[in-house]
Design goal:
- By secondary structure, the protein is of the alpha/beta class.
- The strands form two sheets. Strands 1, 4, 5, 6, 9, 10, 11, 12, 13, 14 and 15 form an eleven-stranded mixed sheet that branches.
- α1 crosses α8 and α5 crosses α6.
- It is globular.
- The chain starts with a strand and ends with a strand.
Length: 305
């Protein structure tokens, strides 16, 4: 079973009009949607007909909205831990330039954390656990580390998609795959990366910390994958970008699904780029028909590293 863990989900409120600071703005072109990196991984998997179980924390009226929306997906099993606090609301403004305003992180109690850890015990050897996004407030600064240690004890295939500290923890916990974007890779090493050679160099530094494979998403430019023995580049394709929200998460989902099916890193990267592009070209998360059309146009090469 594929488990996607989103500790800090969101209700995303999209505004598709001009917004002016210091003035009253009346907007009509708006959309409510489910947000959270792990959740998007599950939605993309669902659209490809692959089953997954979504875990994490949800609370309040926003959490109830997210649960009701996710019930529409046949291939997503829901096993979230309920909390007293409201799940956050993120505002996404796209009037030609994307602007994001992320709400305050939800706060959980010790009892809620204990309930979540008990649920985690059901995960077993051979399962896949994807840890995505930021953590909650209120319990411990080591939430990711605790979850990863439990996963490793059980022999679970661990994948991590998070920012600086949590990404480093994932590497040290010998994650099968970590997925930073270029900016996140720069933040980890506090550098400004110039060119593909430097991307590969710093990806290999993550491997030296313990990560087995590193997938660096590059937006329109595609992605670079560094494995133990090879380095691959998957190129983006031209298309009408509607929103990049969720594109990196779709890329991660596509990579995992194709790799579990073929155990071929090159094919997985190619399919991954198609999934990311499909979501970027869509109103929501990419769909199966579009993904299989796009993958035919994805160029992938093995690079010298």
């Amino acid at each position: 079973m594929i488990y996607t863990c989103t500790l800090n989900p969101s209700l995303d409120y999209f505004i598709k009009e001009d917004v002016y600071l210091g003035k009253l703005n009346r907007v009509e072109n708006t959309v409510y949607d489910v947000g959270g990196k792990g959740i998007i991984v599950s939605v993309l998997a669902n659209n490809l007909g692959i089953e997954s179980t979504a875990i994490g924390f949800l609370g309040g009226f926003t959490g109830e909205f997210i649960l009701n929306e996710l019930k529409k997906y046949e291939k997503i099993n829901l096993d979230f831990t309920g909390i007293k606090d409201n799940t956050r609301i993120n505002i996404k403004i796209n009037n030609g330039i994307e602007t994001e305003i992320n709400g305050a992180t939800q706060r959980i109690t010790k009892n809620e954390w204990a309930v979540f850890l008990e649920k985690l015990e059901t995960i077993k050897k051979g399962d896949v656990l994807i840890l995505s996004g930021s953590v909650c407030k209120g319990v411990t600064d080591n939430m990711y580390k605790t979850i990863m240690e439990k996963a490793n004890e059980k022999g679970v295939l661990l994948i991590v998609d998070s920012t600086k500290e949590n990404l480093i923890i994932g590497c040290r916990q010998k994650a099968f795959l970590v997925k930073p974007n270029k900016k996140e890779l720069e933040e980890v090493f506090e550098v400004k990366i110039k060119g593909e050679k430097e991307i590969i160099y710093y990806a290999k530094q993550l491997q030296k910390l313990g990560a087995k494979n590193v997938l660096v998403s590059l937006g329109r430019e595609g992605a670079i994958l560094v494995t133990k023995n090879s380095t691959y580049k998957g190129y983006g394709v031209e298309g009408n970008v509607i929103s990049t929200v969720g594109a990196g998460d779709s890329m991660l989902s596509g990579f995992l699904i194709e790799f579990l099916k073929t155990e071929d890193y090159g094919k997985a990267l190619k399919f991954s780029c198609a999934c990311g592009s499909s979501t970027a070209f869509s109103e929501g998360v990419g769909n199966k028909e579009d993904i299989y059309k796009i993958v035919e146009h994805i160029k992938m090469i093995e690079m010298q590293s």
